[in-house]
Amino acid sequence: MPLDHDQVTQAAWAALKARGAHDVALPTLLPAALVLELAGEDLRPRLYFASGPQGDELCLRADLTIPAALHYCQIATHDHQEVAWACEGKVFRAPKPGEDRPPEFTQIGLERFGDADTIAADVGVFVAAWEACQAAGLNKLHVRLCDGGLLPQIIAKAALRAPWGEALSEVANHASALRRVLDQACGNGPKREITALERKIVELDQARARSTVAEVLALAQFSLPGARQLSHVADRLSARARRALAPPLDGVTAQTLARLVAMRSQDTLEASLDELVALAHKLGVDLSVWREAWAERLKLIRQEAPIALDHAHFETLSPEAFDYYDGMAFDFSVDASFARPVATGGRYDTLVGVISGGRIQARAVGCVVRPARFGRY
């Protein structure tokens, strides 16, 4: 007799916990500004907002990772304190246009903080997610592997001509924004006309540019809440103007970056790593250490889960909603479209430091499994 959906979910939950994780209760309401800073502004249309007693903007959690990292910052007593948590609960995310699913659904997950051996932790979380899906009866899955730290590393070391190096670095962890800025850097599409204000401030230093924007807003009787918001607007206007006026990158550099961003493996995973190393070499970036680390991950995954990579490919950028992954990342899907992955995970080493304002530092990796996508039982 087939298992019902609750039994399947419990089987997946037990598989995650078998990796040495302990139950944890996570907050449901989070500071909205923090979530948008960490996950990316593109997520805003899919969040549900609320106001706190003091008028502060809050949002319902859209995932389990950010609340887990926030909770870790609150309880950790020292850097790199080792914790492994099994998380379960509802998350709230507005469906994408045309997507047929409820706005709230249950997720289960595993979040690890403070592991000294990051490769072993990456593999352990990947295999835990795989075992959870297998426990749910999903034995044949398509696997998408990514690396959220790859493009930031390449862009930072490639010595790209101003202003494109800085502009691409600022959005290197945000897939849609990176593609937009790269199109500008490559000279694709019509050239944007800059406004009179942008033209006025583009040659000014930062302080004078901010002062000029403040004066213009005052004359227009328009105010912004706080100096930080004003600074952000002024800096963004200056950056946009510099990009609009700058010549595009040279053809070889532009073509190489475009190939890196669009790269999806057509051959073996190891061949994909070699292709990425070769493309980075054209930009003067050595990825040999990076490739060795990935080769070790693949070897260990095959040892622990021999069939997990039978239908796997590598992409440079993951189209999943959250942009905080800065290392190995993965998605599992029942079909090759990856329209609705049943599991997602990855490394997010900078998240704890950002949330705690640098007070606590800890490497972290985690995964989430989505029982609502297991199918009907």
UniProtKB/TrEMBL annotation:
Organism domain of life: Bacteria
SUPFAM superfamilies (alphabetical): Class II aaRS and biotin synthetases (SSF55681)
UniProt cross-references to Gene3D superfamilies, sorted A to Z: Bira Bifunctional Protein, Domain 2 (3.30.930.10)
Keyword Glycoprotein applies: no
A matching Pfam family: tRNA-synt_His
Domain Class II Histidinyl-tRNA synthetase (HisRS)-like catalytic core: 8-184, 216-367
Key words of the record: Glycosyltransferase, Transferase
GO MF, any single term: glycosyltransferase activity
PANTHER family assigned to the protein according to its UniProt record, in alphabetical order: HISTIDINE--TRNA LIGASE, MITOCHONDRIAL-RELATED, HISTIDYL-TRNA SYNTHETASE
Protein name, per record: ATP phosphoribosyltransferase regulatory subunit
Organism of derivation: Candidatus Phycosocius spiralis
Lineage: Bacteria, Pseudomonadati, Pseudomonadota, Alphaproteobacteria, Caulobacterales
